[in-house]
Design a protein that fits this description.
GO biological process, one term: Gram-negative-bacterium-type cell wall biogenesis
Pfam family, one: DUF218
Domain DUF218: 48-185
Strand content: 5-15%
Radius of gyration: 21 Å
Number of domains: 1
Distance between the termini: 69 Å
CATH architecture: 3-Layer(aba) Sandwich
Number of helices: 7
Length: 208
């Protein structure tokens, strides 16, 4: 008699677990699809630009946007503390060095969460209401989730940068790309879940 009573519970738990696995799998495929078709807008324009470090292509792309006059100022977020503006100047093309000297700020965020909080502080200091977000295509969904959570009233324009070393066109066949997307999908879900939690922001000092 006891086993009969436990069977419906076991069946419901198994069905729930199965539905969760299927839902995660469908969500992952949709996430991968979003990444693989991501493309930068044709004519992006905003008050500011933020680039989340992680590759030279990201910084080069952001500096090119600034040099084209598509924004007033650029924040390079997540720079290693030992890297200076002069160090960066040695790694970029000559044509964008003038804007690096005049219109670029740096911060030393250690992860995407800190990228978002440092960017929020910078945006408030500059008084910007629109922002071009430059990062890798696979990193863009999580970045937009974190930035959108800290700056819900700021217009965010995604400018994804592709990594030619990643096989995104057939990601399901390449174990390295598949693993990268799977890890990023998990982090994206965590970022989305974090936005649902109540956040108490520290009070800002008077005059700031």
């Amino acid at each position: 008699m006891a086993s009969r009573k436990r069977k419906p519970v076991w069946f419901a738990a198994t069905a729930l677990a199965g539905s969760l696995v299927v839902g995660l799998a469908i969500g992952f495929v949709a996430f991968a699809r979003t990444v693989t078709v991501a493309a930068p807008p044709v004519d992006p324009r905003a008050e500011g630009i933020v680039v989340l470090t992680g590759g030279t292509a990201r910084i080069d792309g952001a500096l090119a946007l600034l040099a084209e006059g598509r924004a007033q100022r650029l924040l390079i977020s997540g720079v290693n503390p030992v890297v200076t503006r002069e160090t960066l100047a040695e790694t970029v093309e000559d044509g964008v060095r003038p804007v690096l000297a005049c219109c670029v700020d740096l911060d030393h965020a250690r992860d995407t969460i800190e990228n978002a909080s440092e960017t929020q502080r910078w945006v408030e200091e500059q008084g910007f209401r629109s922002l071009i977000v430059v990062t890798s295509d696979y990193h863009m969904p999580r970045s937009m989730a974190e930035l959108g959570g800290t700056m819900p009233d700021v217009e965010l324009i995604a400018f994804p940068v592709s990594n030619p070393d990643l096989r995104l066109d057939d990601w399901w066949r390449d174990s390295a790309t598949f693993g990268l997307l799977a890890r990023e999908y998990g982090k994206f879900l965590a970022a989305e879940a974090r936005q649902l939690l109540p956040i108490t922001r520290p009070a800002r000092a008077a005059g700031r």
